[in-house]
Design brief:
heterodimer; A: about 70% helix; about 0% strand; B: about 625 residues; globular
């Protein structure tokens, strides 16, 4: 997916008046998001000229995209790296440390078993486990990006987070399936 | 216009001029229209004092159309030409509508949307809905003694693009300017939220005649943010009626009923359902056209048992929505019940059990959606209101595009806050290829065949190049109504591709034009007069808005720019009171064009100031 903001000058952090760091005050992000949307949302422009309605749509869309990107640790990390000219290569770079791959396989097997046995409790457990791992990875990412500025290491963590996101999605799909 | 002052958008130069706008609940069973009068949202009644307009339309051979109670009265004697619950057919093909054998209509399987054969000709669900909207529009204009600036029309949150577009098309046919398509649960939340002024996470459980929606919203400091929405756009009170109907057939051993008999028994089934909300059992009696007597007793317990799984079907999307919102039931502060079907005791009990709390029912479940829509219409029309609040809604279904092998590539996930856009790059596979087709679908599944086809977008005018070298950037934009539009540009050459939309389940522009032109001369004249009035209203609003803008931010421009804008304003003023509506249209376009860069500068300034406000307050802390 390409970023929509190619035509706008500011990056997402600047748009929300936030420091260019992985860790920041999430309350500040919420507040600034609301303040901005209060200014630019199409609902404020529906009785005004076409030019303004069009502008409002572009701005509100961009504000939404910026907010969604900064809100998600994975997207935020990816975005921050892109600002430093680093491509996280999530689609192309599949090399992973062995222990991580083993853990992935284990998760997938557990997921498959839970699905076959229609075991909701097992899914709950898996979900909690994934959440814990993701939390740890996010902490590592903060360290690499904000303290050490080691972008290669950070990219590797982003790739791991992407794997975890896929597993989380599949767990979600399994919940839906078992619910039917 | 959003300016330096955050709390007073669209401040009018003539502050006492109230713009007439209404909220319309176009329901499966009943429709309503409401407005904000003296700061309070009220439902508008008809001449007999009734608020609810049954969503029933009857066509007569001479072309006469009856809507509401008078149509409903003829339902049993003229079932094939008396259409009820038309909402279930909007944006739908014949194969989507299950159990049609039990419905007394003559369906026509047409590409694009099913049609209904009546004695006055073949009608699209869009035309039928337009008849209902016309009655509500007339009611509003008579009640408010003036022309409407526009209306907010509600739709089920789980309505897909085709169903939404069909609703918008119906409004167009009825001569209504749609300010916004608003999701029904969100509308209810507005009515409740502003009424109770309470912050927290709320669930809106909306079970109407034909649709079920569940929305999870967070209300905080004047912002209504939808966190997740889910539902079933083919599940509602009608299905509960259907169960009773089937049970009657089983009990009596009847089958192969005529249209009249089927309609009669369905009517009795509905009456029985309503009775069972108050009583432990009810008697269903009817005499069919062949003289057969139906006389059965249905108990509440039996009714609960036979509709158990319908109820279960509402809890599944509810669980999903909570999962998507990443919330547990304990974090939900209040549950709002919307829709007449939530009057059923078993529904209230099931919801109370699920959410572990008593649902809120202090607002009339039949009226709450229209009331909320009216509140938003008031804001969108540009009337000042005491509170300043913001609505952030989402798309209910993921958008995807068809890729190789009939697979779906998701481009926008469900519950994305709107307006939202995504871009995707494509390239050509043949030398000199100048066109390409993109198939967009909605749904959560992996295969195109399991999702709902939205439309095929055909891009033309791609500059011919060597295969694989074109960079076609396609932007998918979902607007605040939840409707998708697509634009495309070849980035090497900067050429914009022309995009032709072929909706899977919609009306084409020609169809609408034809429908608008159909009808007698009287209707045509009325239509022209209406078109003129709308252009005049639009022109006057634009002039007022630009006037305000110049008064507040004129200093952003240099003198020649200001003069040019004023010249366009004068030109428009000179034609607005006349009767040449295309001259007015041209004047509006010219003025719009002249203010484009001014609008950009104002927007930049207002955004910068808003953030500066934050900087200041953060420094002070």
């Amino acid at each position: 997916m390409l970023p929509i903001n190619a035509d706008f000058q500011q990056d997402y952090f600047s748009l929300f008046n936030l420091p260019h760091r992985f860790q920041f005050d999430s309350n500040a992000l919420e507040q600034h998001y609301r303040t901005l949307q209060t200014q630019v949302h199409p609902d404020k422009f529906s009785h005004l000229s076409q030019a303004e309605q069009r502008l409002s749509m572009q701005w509100a869309t961009r504000v939404n995209e910026a907010y969604q990107t900064l809100r998600s640790p994975l997207a935020r990390g990816r975005y921050l790296l892109s600002l430093h000219g680093v491509d996280t290569q999530e689609e192309t770079n599949t090399a992973m440390p062995l222990d991580f791959l083993m853990e992935q396989m284990e998760l997938r097997e557990a997921l498959e078993a839970a699905r076959q046995n229609k075991d909701m409790a097992a899914l709950d457990e898996l979900e909690a486990r994934v959440k814990l791992t993701v939390g740890e990875l996010q902490q590592q990412l903060a360290l690499e990006l904000d303290e050490k500025q080691d972008y290669a290491a950070a990219s590797a963590i982003v790739r791991k987070l992407k794997f975890m996101e896929k597993v989380a999605e599949e767990i979600g799909a399994a919940f839906d399936e078992l619910d039917s | 216009m959003a300016l330096l002052q955050i709390s007073e958008p669209g401040l009018s130069a003539a502050p006492h001029q109230h713009r007439l706008a209404v909220g319309i609940d176009l329901g499966t069973t009943n429709s309503l229209v409401a407005t904000v009068r003296n700061g309070i949202s009220v439902v508008l009644n008809d001449d007999d004092g009734a608020a609810l307009l049954p969503s029933v339309v009857r066509y007569a051979a001479d072309g006469a159309v009856q809507v509401g109670l008078s149509a409903q009265a003829e339902q049993n004697t003229d079932p094939q030409n008396t259409i009820s619950s038309v909402k279930r057919f909007m944006g739908r093909g014949l194969k989507d509508v299950g159990d049609v054998v039990d419905l007394p209509y003559r369906f026509v399987d047409a590409p694009g949307m099913l049609q209904l054969r009546t004695v006055a000709g073949v009608k699209s669900p869009v035309e039928v809905s337009a008849e209902i909207l016309k009655v509500l529009r007339d009611r509003a204009e008579r009640s408010l003694a003036g022309a409407l600036v526009g209306a907010v029309i509600t739709v089920p949150a789980y309505f897909d693009d085709a169903q939404r577009q069909a609703t918008k098309d119906a409004a167009r046919l009825a001569g209504i300017n749609v300010l916004r398509l608003l999701n029904e649960p969100t509308a209810a939340a507005i009515a409740y939220g502003l009424d109770n002024a309470s912050e927290g996470v709320y669930a809106v459980y909306d079970l109407g005649g034909g649709t079920f929606d569940i929305s999870i919203l967070r209300l905080s400091r004047g912002v209504f943010e939808v966190l997740a929405t889910n539902g079933d756009s083919a599940l509602g009170g009608d299905d509960f009626d259907q169960r009773i109907y089937c049970w009657i057939l089983e009990k009596t051993g009847l089958s192969q009923l005529s249209a009249n008999d089927a309609r009669l028994l369905l009517t009795q089934a509905r009456a029985a359902k309503e009775q069972l909300s108050e009583h432990m059992q009810t008697q269903i009696t009817a005499v069919l056209s062949g003289g057969e007597l139906v006389d059965v007793t249905l108990t509440r317990d039996d009714f609960y048992t036979m509709t158990q799984n319908l109820l279960a079907r509402t809890l599944q999307p509810t669980r999903r929505a909570l999962r998507d919102a990443r919330l547990s039931v304990d974090e939900v502060k209040g549950v709002v019940m919307v829709g007449g079907s939530t009057r059923m005791p078993q529904v209230q009990r099931a919801v109370a059990e699920f959410f572990k709390q008593t649902p809120l029912t202090n607002l009339d479940p039949d009226k709450v959606v229209a009331l909320g829509a009216a509140i938003q219409a008031n804001v969108l029309a540009g009337n000042r209101s005491e509170e300043d609040w913001l609505l952030l809604d989402v798309i209910p279904l993921s958008l995807g595009i068809e890729t190789m092998g009939g697979l779906v590539e998701k481009i926008m996930p469900r519950n994305s806050t709107i307006p939202s856009a995504r871009a995707q790059e494509f390239t050509t596979y043949k030398d000199g290829q100048t066109a390409m087709s993109i198939h967009v679908v909605q749904g959560e599944r992996e295969l195109v065949s399991d999702c709902r086809s939205l439309a095929k977008f055909e891009l033309r005018g791609i500059p011919p190049m060597v295969a694989g070298s074109a960079r076609i950037r396609v932007t998918f934009q979902v607007d605040a109504d939840g409707l998708l539009s697509v634009s495309a540009r070849e980035t090497n050459s900067g050429v914009e591709a022309a995009v032709a939309v072929k909706p899977a389940y919609g009306l084409h522009e020609d169809d609408i034009t034809r429908m608008l032109q159909d009808g007698n001369q009287h209707a045509r004249d009325d239509m022209l007069a209406r078109a003129l009035r709308e252009q005049q209203t639009e022109a006057r609003q634009l002039l007022e808005a630009v006037d305000n803008a110049l008064a507040q931010d004129g200093t952003l421009l240099d003198e020649p720019a200001r003069r040019q804008i004023r010249a366009c304003m004068d030109d428009l003023r000179s034609v607005v009171e006349g009767s040449d509506h295309s001259a007015i249209k041209r004047g509006i376009e010219a003025l719009n064009q002249a203010t484009v860069s001014f609008a950009q500068q104002r927007m930049d300034r207002s955004v910068a100031h808003a953030l500066k406000g934050h900087k200041m307050s953060e420094l002070e802390n």
